[in-house]
Amino acid sequence: MAADLPMRSPPPAPFYPAPIFTWTGFYAGVNAGASFDNKAGSATANGFTAANGFVGGPATGSFGPFRGGSSSTGFVGGGQIGYNIQNGMFVYGLEADIDYFGGGGGKTRSYADNVVFPGGTLTTRSRGGDGYLGTVRGRLGVAAFDRTLLYVTGGLAYGDYGTSTRSARFTNATGTNFIDFNGNGNDDTRIGYAVGAGVEYAFTQQISGKIEYLYTDLGSRKYNLTNPNTGAVISARSDGTSQIARVGLNYKF
């Protein structure tokens, strides 16, 4: 009788579908990278007269403006928080970050004036201190490859690049005469804008990594440098722009 009973098959193993990934949610993370500055600038000089010790100075006692630029590289690093909403393949978000901003040790600018002093060169130097840079930006992205997000971003930027001291030297065309200037930095918080783009990849449901480029502009700064012996003055302006490349790691809650 027992042999005639039907065999019972074991129940099928339970099926647990993999959770569907979404970018929606609050996240926080860290970032690090480098700033690549290529700033423009201009300068006007006054008091370059023979009476002030500069042989061959213009009779009017002033000349300029000089124009030129500089470049430097420094470290940036900090943290960010944000929130994303995914609707289909589109992702909308808001992110705020704040980073330490290293000035790369200093900047050098060279200006050339071909009118009053043909071939003369004005070189200004600034010594960078510890600064900071923060942004509050919207993000608009496309989740084109499931866990890969391509996005553009833009919004408010604020910060202080941390310039502490400045100096300058004007040298005439033959290099036989020069005059030095000194001054202090004008550290203060400035407000501007930031725009950029990036790509972010989700390694797990919670952890993602990103590569990001930002262009920031905090406006221009004006400052004066003086020669204590002669009273000659350099009035200069420096543009507050930076290009930033950085990587980041986020945890989604």
Question: Top keywords for this entry?
Answer:
single chain, mainly beta, rod-shaped
In short:
It is built from no helices and twelve strands. It has strands spanning 25-46, 62-87, 90-102, 107-113, 120-128, 130-142, 148-160, 163-171, 178-184, 190-202, 207-226, 233-252. The chain is rod-shaped and about 110 Å long.
Structure explained in plain terms:
This protein has 253 residues and is mainly beta. Helix content is 0%, strand content 68%. The protein is built from no helices and twelve strands. The chain has an eight-stranded antiparallel β-barrel. Strand 10 and strand 11 (207-226) form a beta hairpin.
Total helical segments: 0
Q: In this structure, how is the largest beta sheet organized?
A: 8 strands, antiparallel, barrel
* Arithmetic mean of pLDDT: 77
Q: Please, what is the oligomeric state? A: single chain
Tell me the β content: over 45%
Radius of gyration over all CA atoms, rounded: 29 Å
Q: Unreliable runs, pLDDT <50, ≥5 residues?
A: 57-61
End-to-end Cα distance, whole Å, is 60 Å
Main structural class? mainly beta
Q: If strands are numbered along the chain, what order do they take across the biggest sheet? A: 1-2-3-6-7-10-11-12
Total strand segments: 12
Order of helices and strands: EEEEEEEEEEEE
Secondary structure layout plus pairing:
Layout: E1 25-46, E2 62-87, E3 90-102, E4 107-113, E5 120-128, E6 130-142, E7 148-160, E8 163-171, E9 178-184, E10 190-202, E11 207-226, E12 233-252
Antiparallel strand pairs: 1-2, 1-12, 2-3, 2-4, 3-6, 4-5, 5-8, 6-7, 7-10, 8-9, 10-11, 11-12
